[in-house]
Amino acid sequence: MMIERFISDYASATEAPHKQDVYFDTASVLHATACTTAWSDEQHLALEFLSKRLEISRCLYEGYQISGNRASTTRLSDALQPLALALLFKDFMRLSGNRNMTDAVKRLNGVLKLLDTLREENIAIEPALATLIKAQAEQFLAALQPVPPPLPEAVSHVATTLTPRTLPITVLFWEGPIARAYLATLNSQGLKPERIIHLVSKNDLVTRKPLGRFLPGSLKLAYAQSRQKNSIHHWASTLRKTEPALYLSIRNTVESKLHFSEQTINDALALADLSEYSENVEALMIESLSDDTLYKRLLELSQTQVLFTGGGIVPKRLLEIPTLKFIHIHPGHLPEVRGADCVLWSHLMKGRTSATCFYMAPGIDDGDTILASYLPRLIPQLDTPQRDTKTLYRATYAFLDPWVRAFVLQQALIATEGFTQVNAEPQVEYAAVTYHFMHAQIQQSVFTRLFAEE
Q1: CATH numbers and ranges of domains, the chain
Q2: The overall pTM is greater than 0.90
């Protein structure tokens, strides 16, 4: 078998110095696995561990702690990285052959990310191995069939409305398409949050440099708000001008399949002043969600529920404030579609997008679910070969992902009477699958299906 030859050649050309002070010694594990023909669960778990590290960071380190964090900043030697690539590719082929498609596609994601890294860093690999990986990836993705989920129960609530009123919730507003879709959705139902806390970054989101250091307080805040708004909405604004057909294909799908009105979508795009959505709006300038200013302000709130709209990973100490319950809408059906890029993973693995409204807890998409739903099949008809993957990716997250989330927010509001009658249920952990950011080759496979011309 060709892959065995690659493994043998790479293993014989490298050494495996043993590191005593780490939980996971990458070099030793790679050599031990290369020297074993019939892999046991130990080897399978080791390769799964390495694949996850690659999915997260796109590179490998000499050693890791039991938590999965790297044990040092020293990268795995250039000589050993091709061996890791060959072993992980062999494991992908094993999983694919066993029809373990969920683990296979995750392993492929790690393999493709490592292959990219080796190319970017000019680390030599056999051209035949790269060709083999590309061919097998194309064949696998072309044949991959989603496992259809049950029909979405929440769709039955689409036509239902709520009595207009002020909701006893606080919106933690981080400027962006998601937050705007949420406010427009609330507004379309005649609902106003009791409070909006507008989080404004002290630093430029691209350069990370402080904003308006020499401006007085009110001007500094206004300047930072403007820079943040322009930065976050850059691609949404640009694509509406440069890719009108792409924008309209997604918008028309959101209107026809998810039943958001033209007025509601226009409301979100207008980027109106937040005072139009709540009578109680305050702004906080912060470094990040870990900023003490935010923590102290949230401690002052009376018992309430907080609708999280983005801005990063919520620190554990915020989630542990006893008077608060954080509500989040994740673009995947929990717990079987956790992690990143889930609007894409859900479509690839289930054939439909999905989302879950849940109470946040420390961990990746942990917490009790309020409502989880697979959405109606969304197929914005478009000729994708005319557009590059980055453009399709940016358009998906500017125009589709926010409304996938907003759809389930709307259903959760209806099902719980505005979060006043919530019956949340624990997630079934044995069913949990966590995905990571999707490689461009897998993205392209998704976009070919997502934007299929029927």
Answers
A1: 2-143 (no CATH), 153-450 (3.40.50.170)
A2: yes
